[in-house]
Every structure is written in structure tokens, then in C-alpha cells.
Write a structure and sequence with these properties.
single chain; alpha+beta; Chloramphenicol Acetyltransferase; four-stranded mixed beta sheet; 18 helices; about 35% helix
Length: about 575
């Protein structure tokens, strides 16, 4: 081995001592989780093995091992395509197969729920301002979970169920150890409850020695030596059965290696082999399920929290209607008002249907323009939104993974020149009068109107629910950039998800905002009237008057804003 001297390492963010001090404070705060952990540990857990663990007999010296490996052609999609289809983690996938296999394997059948001890990395984001990414110490946590994959025989439904059961545990289960071992008011309560009989630990993914075909690094894993498991031979065992799994990258791809261990007096080698092979079979079924049909997978309720609370049944119904979904989001405050007007009187004219017309001179690459518009819808989730309120506590915007671009081409070159402009104007007015159904995305359509071989008008019609005025210049700039690159969006900057903004909105103090605006509007009896009275209040399309200020005056105004340190809007 080589020794490297003089290397500059990043500083340790949080000393271990400080982390431990925080744990004692957290242990008091986590007392509210006691009912959750009591519920996890209370219930049916049929005994495994021919007898209970005997600490005097079942020590580390009696442990037997069975190691099996899943081939690369199965491990590859198991770690990538399956989690991606369900927005799940690798642990969610592995534990789904594990829960199914154990429920089918244990003697006497019984309930489908399986009680398991899980290991977590313990470096959870539970203390503000703490960074343990470079801190050396014992962080690993262990906590019980009760997993029930159900008995429907549907692999996808089983994975969604297990994923949600794991997501229901706060902060990856770190609270259990705090209550069991640190909080004196709760440790005695949890100590009286039964412990899981099975331990499960997925160690992650590592490169096996020579796995990539390259020369081994100065420091690498040694897989061909028996280094033991590090346990004292006389140490008592915590579980009747343990599974430690790891993914090793080899030249032909990743392989999942499962090491099963158990006290020799509790199970025969063949009994454990049956379970081990049943687990691999369940994992193969999940891989086949995802590979077998398009659109497999989908969202679960935890994917939408904390912004939207929707049941799995409702999500399934939306996916049946819209296809695979990218997200389900709340409406922003102003969107709530716009949506109310859109559905309040569906027979009246919708004054929030917006039109933008861009005149184009010269030859137009129609295919490139259409591809650019389609890429816009693919880049911006908000442009694909459908707005729903039926059967929901509050309205939501449903974001399909994909929607087809509404595209139309109209040729006016055959219309006599004297009436051509009037015909185009009449077409655009009629198009604007066609209402959008908020529940049928996209609430946006494009039309290319040709009035001559070298004269065209691109008409973009959308509902105001989709985007505000500040967004329109961004949209047009991106459209033109995409047009020059045949619809290829790889050169454009990454889009900040709309979810980020809505998360910020949800975090604002609405009570304080309400109080502030009450103070601002205090004493105001009525709005400023700018239109004559006596109107029936029915909606009408707005007229527009445009006044251009002279360039010299505009320059003077701009200079004034800079001097005064204000915006042109304020001036």
C-alpha cells in the first residue's frame, strides 16, 4: 500500500460529541412517537425455528451461513428500473420481496405481516445546522418495521404498500433508538415489548476486486479472503435469522449477494435455502413486472406529501384517467381564484383565455417549430397541468408525464388579399372564444397561420391558470431557442421545479399575512370605481389601448429609477 502525506481534507462539519449532545435533546422531543413504536412491536409475530433463541446455547460460534448471488441481468434492472418506476428506493424493492418470501415461508402460514429489524445509516437530517457527512463515529441505527405486502398477487401493489409503510416511519426510524435507549421515560416501556426475530441489512453497492476489469486501486475490497464477521464466538445473538445483502460490481455488471446467517440449532440448511431462493424469486417477479408492460409503477401518497394528501385509490383513479403522472400539486393562491372563475359559470365567456400572436417573416421550418413547442410542454410541468376538484378536499393540479401538443396549421393564401387580414382576425377571435376544460390538459394550443409564402402568424392560446405575464417572455425566448435547435432542449438551463415554489408558499405564515393585510386595508370601505355603475357584471373580453412613450422620455425615466434606487414599476 502507498501512504499519502500532505493531502488536504475537508474539515469535519459537526464533532461527534456535539451530535451525541443533540441526541439527548432529541430523545425528549421524540416521546410523541411512543404510540407508533408500540404499535409496530405489538401484534402477531409467529415464532420461527424449532424453538426460541437460547442465549446460553445460540452464540456466534454456532452460526451457519448461506450465500447466494443474483445474476447481473436481474440485479441491474432490480436496482434501477424497478425503483425508478415506483419512485422508490432500493431498500423498498428488496424489502417487498423479503416480506413476501418470509410470509409464504414461515411454518403454519398466519398473517401476511412480517416484523423485521432494519439498520439505517443514522445520519438523518434531524438537527438544523448539523453536518455529519465527514464525522467518524457510531451513527448506525436499528429500528423495527412491520411490513405487509398483502396477498393480492400484484407485485406493483405490494411494492407500493411496503414503500408507504416504510415512509410512515419518521426520519428513517431514528426515533426508536432514542426512545428505547436514551429517553428514561420510554425505554422501560419499549424494553417490555417483543423484539423482531429477523434482521435485514442492505449494505449498498461496492466494486468487487477487479470488477471493472481495470487494475485494482491502491485500496480496494478483498473478496477472496475469509475475514470472519467480527463477532466474539461467545456473543449472544439478537435474531433467529439475519440477512446481510450487498451489491458487487463485476465486469459483467452488478450482482446482488445475499448472506444468510442463523444459529445451527434453529433451522436446517435446506429450510434457509428455500427462503433464500424464494426471496430471489420474488425479486425476479418484480423485475419481470416492470419489464412486462409500459406504464407500470406510479405514484404513492408519500410522493405528494406534504403539499397534497391523496389516497392511493384516488391516485390510481387519476392515473387511469391521465396515464402515468409526474406529480400532483396544490394550486397557488391566485390559481385558486382563477380556477373558481373557470368552473363557476362554464357557459359564459372565459375572460382568462389568453392569446399571443407572433408574426414571422421568411421561410418557416414547420417541423422544427412544432418540435420546439412540444419540448416546451415536456420541460415545464406546469404547462401540462390539469385542474381537478371533484372528490377532493381542495383543488389540485394533476401533472401527466406526457401530453400531446395541440397543433394546427391554417393556410389563408387562397383568401383574396383584400379580405385576408380580416379572415385571420376572425379566426383568432373564434379560437379565443373556444373554452378550455380545466380537467383536460394541456390548457394550451398552438396554431400556425400562413398568409403568404413568407408571412406567417404563430398563435399561442392558453388559459391564464397555466402561467402569468412574467412567464411569457421566458416561454417565447425558450421557444425560439428550441426552434433554432430543432426542438433539442439540452442546451437550455435546468428548469426549477414548480413544486419548489409551492413548497415555499406552503411554508409561509398565513395568519401573519392575513393580519398584515387587514391592517393595510383597515378603513377602506369600497374599491376605487373606474367604470360606470349599472353594469350586470357579466364577463366580457377586455379591450386594449397601447400608448408608446417617446424613446427620449423612456431613457429619462430609466435614468430616474437608477438615481432613486427604485423600479420603473414603482415610478
Amino acid at each position: 500500500a502507498r501512504a499519502y502525506a500532505g493531502a488536504e481534507l475537508d474539515p469535519v462539519g459537526t464533532p461527534y460529541r456535539r451530535w451525541v449532545q443533540h441526541l439527548h435533546t432529541l430523545a425528549e422531543d421524540r416521546a410523541v412517537e411512543l404510540p407508533l413504536w408500540r404499535n409496530v412491536l405489538t401484534g402477531d409475530d409467529a415464532p420461527l425455528g424449532v424453538r426460541p433463541l437460547d442465549p446460553a446455547v445460540d452464540t456466534a460460534s454456532t452460526v451457519r451461513h448461506l450465500s447466494l448471488s443474483l445474476p447481473a441481468e436481474v440485479t441491474g434492472p432490480l436496482l434501477t428500473k424497478v425503483p425508478a418506476a415506483f419512485r422508490a428506493g432500493v431498500n423498498d424493492v428488496l424489502l417487498t420481496g423479503f416480506a413476501q418470501a418470509v410470509a409464504d415461508w414461515r411454518s403454519g402460514g398466519g398473517p401476511s405481516g412480517v416484523l423485521v429489524d432494519l439498520e439505517g445509516h443514522g445520519r438523518e437530517d434531524v438537527v438544523a445546522g448539523v453536518d455529519t457527512s465527514r464525522t467518524v463515529g457510531w451513527f448506525t441505527s436499528m429500528f423495527p418495521v412491520r411490513l405487509d405486502a398483502g396477498g393480492s398477487g400484484d407485485p406493483g401493489r405490494a411494492l407500493k404498500a411496503v414503500k408507504e409503510q416504510l415512509r410512515a416511519l419518521p426520519d428513517n426510524g431514528i426515533g426508536y433508538g432514542l426512545l428505547r435507549y436514551v429517553n428514561p421515560d420510554t425505554s422501560g416501556v419499549l424494553a417490555q415489548l417483543p423484539s423482531p426475530q429477523i434482521g435485514f441489512n442492505y449494505l449498498g453497492r461496492f466494486e468487487a476486486a477487479g470488477g471493472s476489469g481495470a487494475v485494482a486501486a491502491d485500496w480496494s475490497l478483498c473478496s477472496d479472503a475469509d475475514l470472519g464477521d467480527g463477532r466474539d464466538p461467545g456473543m449472544r445473538l439478537s435474531h433467529v435469522l439475519d440477512l446481510n445483502a450487498v451489491t458487487q460490481d463485476h465486469a459483467d455488471g452488478p450482482r446482488l449477494v445475499a448472506d444468510w446467517s442463523w444459529p445451527a440449532g434453529l433451522f436446517s440448511d435446506e429450510e434457509v435455502r428455500v427462503l433464500a431462493e424464494a426471496w430471489f424469486a420474488a425479486l425476479r417477479t418484480l423485475v419481470d413486472h416492470v419489464a412486462g408492460a409500459a406504464g407500470v409503477g406510479g405514484l404513492t401518497p408519500s410522493d405528494l406529501l406534504p403539499l397534497v394528501s391523496v389516497s392511493q385509490e384516488r391516485i390510481d383513479g387519476l392515473e387511469g384517467e391521465y396515464g402515468r403522472l409526474a406529480d400532483v400539486l396544490p394550486l397557488s393562491p391566485l390559481q385558486q381564484g382563477l380556477f373558481f372563475h373557470a368552473v363557476y359559470d362554464e357557459q359564459a365567456e372565459d375572460v382568462y383565455t389568453v392569446q399571443l400572436a407572433l408574426d414571422i417573416e421568411g421561410t418557416v421550418d414547420r417541423a422544427a417549430l412544432r418540435a420546439a413547442a412540444q419540448t416546451l410542454l415536456s420541460r415545464h410541468t406546469g404547462l401540462r397541468a390539469a385542474f381537478r376538484h371533484e372528490g377532493l378536499d381542495v383543488p389540485v393540479q394533476v401533472i401527466p408525464d406526457h401530453v400531446e401538443l395541440p397543433w394546427q396549421e391554417c393556410d389563408f393564401t387562397d383568401v383574396p388579399e383584400a379580405g385576408r387580414e380580416a379572415a385571420v382576425r376572425r379566426w383568432t377571435e373564434e379560437d379565443r372564444a373556444v373554452r378550455f376544460d380545466p380537467a383536460r390538459p394541456p390548457l394550451m394550443r398552438f396554431a400556425l397561420l400562413s398568409t403568404a409564402a413568407d408571412r406567417h402568424r404563430l398563435v399561442i392560446t392558453n388559459h391564464h391558470l397555466l402561467l402569468d405575464g412574467w412567464s411569457m417572455p421566458v416561454l417565447v425566448k425558450e421557444l425560439l431557442t428550441l426552434y433554432t435547435h430543432q426542438g433539442d432542449g439540452t442546451r437550455l438551463p435546468r428548469v426549477t421545479p414548480n413544486r419548489d415554489y409551492l413548497t415555499w408558499v406552503a411554508g409561509q405564515d398565513r395568519t401573519a399575512a392575513e393580519a398584515a393585510w387587514r391592517q393595510v386595508l383597515d378603513g377602506l370601505d369600497e374599491p376605487t370605481l373606474v367604470a360606470p355603475g349599472g353594469r350586470d357584471g357579466s364577463p366580457a373580453a377586455p379591450d386594449r389601448v397601447t400608448v408608446d412613450l417617446p424613446a427620449a422620455l423612456t431613457e429619462r425615466l430609466t435614468a430616474c429609477t437608477r438615481t432613486g434606487g427604485v423600479t420603473l414599476n414603482t415610478l
